[in-house]
Design a protein that fits this description.
Elements lengths: L23 H28 L5 H28 L5 H30 L11 H55 L1 H18 L3 H19 L6 E3 H18 L3 E6 L8 E3 L4 H11 L7 E10 L2 E9 L14 H14 L4 E7 L2 E9 L5
Parallel strand pairs: 2-4
Antiparallel strand pairs: 1-3, 4-5, 5-7, 6-7
Length: about 375
């Protein structure tokens, strides 16, 4: 950044241990505080001199401008000191500034006293003629710098709090993203394991050509899924298309399997987390189709319920077998629950409904659209 474009109170930091960056709003807040206090001080004292009818009012105003410039320079020195300590705690910075400010205020107050003493002809000996006047000047400027210090630290604290809140939000977002990615990354290995088992079963049954076709379809399916960002929403029609491809692979292993996809046109562009129902479809194959005698059926149905999207994954097989929930949910169900909770909080649900000869898993989530 060119030197002539830098802010007066901006200190750029590079390298290890870099200090907290200052936002433009913080820079202007500090600059406004400093100029406002010194501007108000100049205006009030100059007005007082004029109202007194002093014949040296103009000279006093010029001297006061010079002393105000010195005061602003002192404030800038405080600012630079605090920027050097910005990697320290707010308490440490407050203690340092509170310890230094009174001494600097005393020095400035004496300089101001003797400067105006010189203006009014009492400078030759640099002797305090009026101790009452001297104590007044000293106390006034001491409290002035203490007030500036307190307001400056208040600004620092406010922006420190904002910065920490922003950092905390960023860290929560990073943790949220990492958790979603980890949950999503559980899907493909789980699916690959099941698919390879299916291919292995075909080979063991002597159905080599079908196993080869299944492997080709599996390769196509993985190329498609690997191109999907697991942290991005996808249109529901694309999500259903992926599962239709997966079920087409499984139909090679289970020729009696009937697949039914119900997707109303109004929901084709509904936004859903990528592969959110993949574990449910896999479970329907593993615990339903694979354990039932032919014929078997899997249906995936989407419907709108008010302002919510509902997706039902249901498998049907032996009507005389009572399907039940196992004691502990498997990796797939737990994965879906965690991803839904990370995406939607309490505004979602996953309901499992076993019945005689069938099992249904219903996912509900807020309805939104990708386009």
């Amino acid at each position: 950044m060119p030197a002539d474009q830098r802010e007066f109170f901006l200190v750029e930091e590079v390298g290890p241990g870099a200090r907290r960056p200052q936002a433009r709003a913080e820079i202007w807040a500090k600059l406004t505080l400093t100029l406002s206090m010194w501007g108000a001080s100049f205006a009030l004292f100059t007005l007082g001199t004029i109202l007194q009818g002093s014949h040296r009012a103009f000279d006093a105003a010029v001297l006061r401008i010079a002393m105000s410039a010195v005061g602003i320079a002192i404030c800038y020195g405080f600012h630079r000191l605090l920027r050097r300590l910005s990697h320290r705690s707010f308490r440490t910075r407050a203690i340092v500034l509170s310890a230094v400010a009174p001494f600097v205020a005393e020095t400035y107050a004496w300089a101001n006293y003797f400067a105006f003493a010189a203006l009014y002809g009492r400078a030759a000996r640099l002797v305090i003629v009026d101790w009452n006047d001297a104590v007044y000047v000293l106390s006034m400027w001491t409290w002035f710098f203490i007030a500036w210090t307190g307001l400056y630290l208040a600004i620092e604290y406010n922006f420190d709090a904002r910065h920490e809140a922003q950092r905390a939000a960023e860290l929560r977002g990073m943790a949220h993203t990492a958790k979603l990615r980890a949950l999503s990354n559980q899907i493909n290995p789980h699916f690959l394991f099941n698919s390879l088992n299916s291919i292995s079963a075909l080979i063991l049954d002597g159905r080599g050509q079908e196993a080869e076709r299944m492997l080709a379809r599996l390769s196509t399916f993985f190329r498609t899924t690997l191109a999907i960002d697991p942290l991005m929403d996808v249109p529901l029609d694309r999500e259903f298309e992926l599962h239709q491809r997966y079920l087409a692979i499984e139909q090679m292993r289970y020729p009696d399997l009937t697949v039914e996809i119900v997707l109303p046109d109004e929901l084709r562009s509904a936004a859903v987390p990528a592969l959110i129902i993949q574990p449910l479809v896999e479970n329907a194959i593993k615990h339903g189709v694979a354990l039932s005698r032919p014929p078997t059926r899997i249906s995936i149905t989407a419907e709108r319920i008010g302002d919510r999207l509902s997706i039902l994954v249901e498998d049907a097989g032996n009507p005389e077998v009572e399907r039940k929930l196992s004691g502990a949910e498997g990796i797939g169900i737990a994965n879906v629950r965690q991803r839904l909770a990370e995406y939607f909080g309490d505004a979602q649900s996953l309901t499992l409904t076993p019945a005689r000869g069938s099992f249904a898993a219903r996912v509900t989530m807020p309805l939104a659209f990708t386009r």
